[in-house]
Write a structure and sequence with these properties.
Number of helices: 10
CATH superfamily of the largest domain: Dihydrodipicolinate Reductase, domain 2
Number of strands: 15
Distance between the termini: 51 Å
Helix content: 25-40%
Order of helices and strands: EHEHEHEHEHEHEHHEEEEEEEHHE
CATH topology of the largest domain: Dihydrodipicolinate Reductase, domain 2
Shape: globular
Length: 313
């Protein structure tokens, strides 16, 4: 049992509180919103409330989850790392590459874990998809298509590419690795100034020098929640429902479609359990570890799509 702090207990942070308690840890919470604090205390009467400074100075708190808005990630995470706390930071690692590099250096300098919330690296359907691809069951891979959609209210200070696009780009990096180029994106803000619907395209070149076309649709306007990946190969096609963790293998010629059995998992719990285990050992315990360097690479791709190669409609 450990003493863990969760900084930011809104929609996503309260999930961290729940999972840490389910895992048997003592949880301290921190949030500038009294409403968020009260909601959390109403659900979990065992939590302790402290401000950020008190958390930083509490020697018994060795691990923190940071679930604050994107633009605050660097400020909060840097303070925690300098206080020699192991940090789980929800994606993105930062909003620019310089801040990402500074966080990586602080983690190394203070000899503490920096894990970024790329949750789909712990998703069993994505793990199985990676296994199928690596076994060459699909033949040569032609393209990977993502539909990453759900309805959200308007946001004053975030756009969909940085906030939501991290996940499909990270899944691609996790499964295929390789180098990207020729990245393009288009986006629209229909209810707000910031982009809330976007298309991202780029070419991925694998270590085997195979070119794969990547197409990503992102939407906060579509009420049909989808987290779907379709991997099209020369022989077979893989359809992955990342929410319900279901996988279907489709023969391109016969159109025969069969479900591949997998056991769905609680991805948030698994990634937080992994974080705690890594923190106790003070080292990453296995390969899916989404460290600062991985997160910086994914951020680079996203920023290239969002800023340098963006065509606003």
């Amino acid at each position: 049992m450990m003493k863990v702090a969760v900084i930011g207990v809104g929609h996503w942070g309260i999930k961290h509180v729940d999972e840490y308690i389910q895992l048997g840890h003592n949880v301290t919470i921190c949030d500038k919103s009294k409403e968020n604090i009260n909601n959390c205390k109403d659900r979990f009467d065992t939590v302790e409330v402290k401000n950020l400074e008190a958390i930083l100075n509490d020697k018994e708190i060795t691990c923190v989850s940071i679930c604050t808005p994107n633009h605050t990630h660097y400020d909060v995470a840097s303070k925690c790392l300098m206080a020699k706390k192991h940090v789980f930071l929800e994606k993105p690692i930062a909003t620019n590459i310089d801040d990402a590099e500074k966080l990586i250096k602080l983690s190394k300098k203070n000899n503490v874990i920096l894990q970024i919330g790329h949750v789909y690296r712990f998703n069993n359907s994505v793990k199985k998809a990676k296994e199928i691809v690596n076994n060459c069951e699909l033949g040569n891979i032609y393209s990977v298509n993502f539909s990453w959609t759900n309805f959200e209210p308007t946001f004053a200070n975030i756009g969909i590419i940085l906030d939501l696009g991290i996940h499909p780009v990270d899944i691609i990096d996790n499964i295929f690795g390789g180098k990207y180029d020729n990245i393009k994106s288009r986006g629209w803000g229909l209810r707000q100034e910031n982009t809330e619907f976007a298309i991202i395209n780029y070419r991925l070149t694998t270590s085997e020098n195979q070119s794969i076309f990547i197409n990503i649709e992102l939407s906060w306007l579509n009420p049909i929640r989808k987290r779907e990946m379709v991997v099209i190969g020369s022989k077979k096609t893989l359809q992955v429902d990342c929410v319900n963790q279901k996988i279907f293998l489709i023969d391109n010629i016969s159109k025969n479609k069969k479900e591949i059995p997998i056991t769905p998992n609680n991805t948030i719990r698994d990634e937080l359990e992994y974080f705690i285990d890594s923190s106790e050992k003070n080292q990453a315990v296995s390969s899916p570890y989404p460290n600062g360097s991985i997160a910086k690479h994914i951020l680079e791709i996203i920023l290239n799509a969002e800023i340098e190669n963006f065509d606003k409609r």
